[in-house]
């Protein structure tokens, strides 16, 4: 079940089929598009398209979804550099030096180094993923329900880091996500829960409706309220030129930011929006001319762009090895795997090696596609920000409605999306983090099933989670994370306001 | 609810009340047979969490003596635009089954684009029409998804 070149070659054979190449290209294209457009991120993009992919085979569908995720990391820098509007939270540090470079007439080199750093970091990280994921999966194969429960519990403790300064609000958001996921039939006994006797609620609330509402609809509401006409009306010229001197100057930066992005990305809760700042800061500290940072240093563009691609790829390691999502986008991909009847976690490598290796192989190909899409075509992407919001907003709503309706072809799911859109709007206004709700709504059922099975094994004793070494370690880490969050909360003397939601 | 502190107190109380409602609603869940994990357990945990965190948020904000800031609520025009956007979306959802995806998409997009920029009614009509046709050709004809085709295309 561990790494083998045969599996990888088989994966390449599957990923290089015409059908999978086409869907990888579609994913890369959509990913770059959602990355370029502030207002619709990879979370909304994947959530909207996931139900529509039911017409595709699972491998093609997940190849496309993964490409959207890592593709968004490429596209997010375009608006950050050209108009100082980061397409994603992870592109915020890119805007610092990228926009300064653009103002100095060096938008071309900034965009080019951003695409090249993304490619180098993305490819190096996929190589690391190729070796790390099966190794960890081999370790995780001994996991039983207690270990899985402890792992999911540790995943939920991510709420602490996803909540920023707003721990109580993060916990409320998590509880609401859990509550939404509990509506419907109990997975173990089949009892109807929180349905109030209505037949429609018996089938439950699908997490995609929740996510699309929280991210896409609430974002449209915010933009409509602010009467945004267009993201930018700037005309872009001189976007292509770069020289080898820039690449040579940044070669070690690319390696360092890959290492920082990848290894931090393996940790639960370390989203690209966090690691990009760490990589930027590290580069500034190591630079012989730190005073250039913030004034148009090319390494200041290279470091965060490489780090966000490395982190997004690293997120696939715990997803494939443990079935543990470390970010909202990963949670949706996990939901996608479950939708296709695939067992996330270590058994994925044992039971569906063709699938998992094809997805990994497709990432090598996807990175090449994205380099081609982002280097010569960057001028086209930059023009997209000129689309007026009065066209873009209703089209985003149309995509959201079509995506949500196609979950079960019931208008009920779209009503749920609308409800969570309004809830998401108020949550953002009132400083509630949205990410804990997404994480909880996806993990709830797995958490409850694993707990039920573990208690069955232990005949009702919760000590099982502390008497088995692996689950004890996970539980310990979870309680440590919770304790740290509570301590920070007790010491805080400011109102609770959430940080920007990670990707 | 103009400042964060006041809003947090109000929301904290509301969340606590909602938590009590969830706790109450959980008691209606039938527990037939003997289970190691009752179907009521998780709903109870959620209810308790909401009550505790709601009270905690309200109390923390009540006793807060540090910096406070205003919440950027929309002005009158903003409220009207959001309301019309939401009502038109609700209309789109309500019309989806009786009129079908292509026609309801055409109506929604034409109205929404026109409403957000009234000087471009012809553009709104064109985009609405093109998207309506694309939704029929792509989702119903090509992909064969079970969207309602509606009165214009059924049969």
How would you describe the overall organization of this protein?
The complex is a heterodimer of chains A (about 500) and B (about 160). Chain A is an all-alpha fold and about 500 residues long. Chain A has one domain. In chain A, about 70% of the residues lie in helices and about 0% in strands. Chain A has a two-stranded antiparallel ribbon with strand order 1-2. In chain A, helix 1 crosses helix 18 (about 355-375) and helix 16 packs across helix 22. The longest helix of chain A has about 35 residues, at about 105-140. The two termini of chain A are about 30 Å apart. With about 160 residues, chain B is an all-alpha fold. Chain B folds into two domains: about 5-65; about 75-140, no CATH class. In chain B, helix 1 packs antiparallel against helix 2 (about 40-65). The longest helix of chain B has 24 residues, at about 75-100. Chain B starts with a helix and ends in a 13-residue tail after the last helix. The relative contact order of chain B is 0.11. The mean pLDDT of chain B is about 90.
């Amino acid at each position: 079940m561990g790494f083998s070149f045969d599996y990888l070659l088989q994966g390449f054979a599957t990923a290089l089929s015409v059908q999978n190449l086409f869907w990888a290209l579609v994913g890369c294209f959509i990913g770059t598009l959602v990355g370029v457009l502030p207002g619709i991120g990879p979370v909304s993009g994947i959530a909207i398209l996931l139900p529509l992919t039911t017409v595709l085979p699972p491998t093609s569908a997940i190849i496309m979804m993964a490409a959207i995720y890592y593709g968004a990391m490429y596209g997010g820098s375009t608006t950050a550099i050209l108009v100082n509007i980061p397409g994603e939270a992870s592109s915020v540090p890119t805007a610092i030096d990228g926009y300064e470079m653009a103002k100095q007439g060096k938008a071309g080199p900034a965009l080019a180094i951003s695409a090249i750093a993304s490619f180098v970091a993305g490819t190096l990280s996929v190589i690391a993923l190729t070796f790390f994921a099966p190794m960890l999966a081999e370790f995780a194969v001994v996991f039983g329900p207690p270990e899985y429960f402890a792992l999911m519990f540790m995943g939920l403790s991510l709420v602490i880091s996803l909540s920023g300064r707003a721990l109580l609000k993060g916990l409320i958001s998590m509880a609401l996500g859990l509550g939404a996921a509990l509506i419907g039939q109990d997975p173990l006994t089949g009892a109807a829960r929180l349905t109030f006797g209505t037949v429609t609620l018996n089938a439950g609330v699908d997490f995609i409706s929740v996510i699309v509402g929280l991210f896409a609809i609430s974002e449209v509401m915010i933009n409509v309220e602010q009467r945004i006409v267009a993201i930018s009306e700037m005309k872009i010229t001189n976007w292509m030129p770069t020289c080898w001197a820039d690449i040579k100057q940044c070669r070690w930066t690319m390696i360092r930011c890959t290492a920082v992005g990848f290894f931090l990305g393996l940790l639960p809760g370390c989203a690209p929006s966090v690691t990009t700042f760490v990589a930027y800061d590290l580069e500034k500290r190591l630079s012989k001319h730190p005073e250039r940072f913030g004034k148009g240093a090319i390494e200041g563009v290279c470091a965060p762009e490489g780090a966000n691609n490395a982190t997004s790829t690293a997120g696939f390691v715990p997803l494939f090895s443990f079935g543990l999502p470390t970010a909202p986008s990963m949670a949706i991909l996990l939901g996608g795997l479950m939708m296709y009847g695939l067992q996330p976690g270590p058994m994925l490598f044992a039971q569906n090696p063709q699938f998992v290796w094809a997805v990994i192989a497709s990432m090598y190909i996807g990175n090449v596609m994205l380099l081609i899409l982002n280097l010569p075509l960057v001028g086209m992407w930059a023009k997209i920000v000129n689309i007026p919001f009065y066209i873009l907003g209703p089209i985003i709503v149309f995509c959201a409605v079509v995506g949500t309706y196609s979950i079960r072809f019931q208008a009920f799911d779209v009503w749920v999306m609308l409800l969570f859109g309004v809830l998401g709007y108020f949550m953002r206004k009132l400083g509630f983090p949205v990410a804990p709700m997404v994480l909880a709504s996806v993990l709830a059922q797995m958490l409850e099933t694993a707990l039920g099975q573990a208690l069955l094994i232990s005949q009702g004793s919760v000590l099982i989670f502390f008497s088995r070494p692996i689950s004890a370690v996970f539980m310990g880490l979870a309680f440590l994370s919770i304790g740290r969050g509570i301590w920070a909360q007790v010491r805080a003397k400011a109102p609770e306001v959430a940080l920007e939601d990670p990707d | 609810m103009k400042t964060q502190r006041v809003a947090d107190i109000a929301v904290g109380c509301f969340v606590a009340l909602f938590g009590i409602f969830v706790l109450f609603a959980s008691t209606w869940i039938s527990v037939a047979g003997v289970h190691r994990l009752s179907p009521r357990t998780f709903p109870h945990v959620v209810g308790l969490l909401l009550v505790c965190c709601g009270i905690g948020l309200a109390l923390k904000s009540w006793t807060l003596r540090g910096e406070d800031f205003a919440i950027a609520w929309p002005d009158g025009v903003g409220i009207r635009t959001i309301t019309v956007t939401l009502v038109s979306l609700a209309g789109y959802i309500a019309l989806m089954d009786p009129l079908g995806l292509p026609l309801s998409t055409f109506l929604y997009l034409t109205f929404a684009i026109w409403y957000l920029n009234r000087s471009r009614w012809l553009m709104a009509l064109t985009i609405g029409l093109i998207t309506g046709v694309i939704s029929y050709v792509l989702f119903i004809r090509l992909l064969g998804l079970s969207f309602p085709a509606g009165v214009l295309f059924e049969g």
